[in-house]
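Job type: complex structure
Entries:
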Amino acid sequence: MNKCLDSGIQEMLPDLAHGTLDQQSRIRVEAHLASCESCREDMVVIQTVKNAAVFAPTIDVQRVMRQIPPYRAIVPGVRPLRRSGRLARRMRQRSRRSRGRRAGPGPAS
Ligand SMILES: [Zn+2]
């Protein structure tokens, strides 16, 4: 099958599928479809997508939002990180040291 090069017709295929072409354009496109296998196949795809869209479920965003668990419960069994304990103390000390470095040379270095 050769790919159709008539882009003007191809742009009108969705409009034909949706019935929004004026009569003159519709006759022109339908005449083209009779002789163009490529556009006929495109038309089948467009019709398939159009028909599928009719049955697409509407998305209830509020309902989806209610299903999302709160942040702390994302990984069950893993407690959220707290600002205490040895690691947090070490991190605080490190940030204090880097602040001192930025302020200029320290007294004992
Ligand atoms: Zn064509």
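Summary: The chain has five helices and no strands. Residues 7-54 form one domain.
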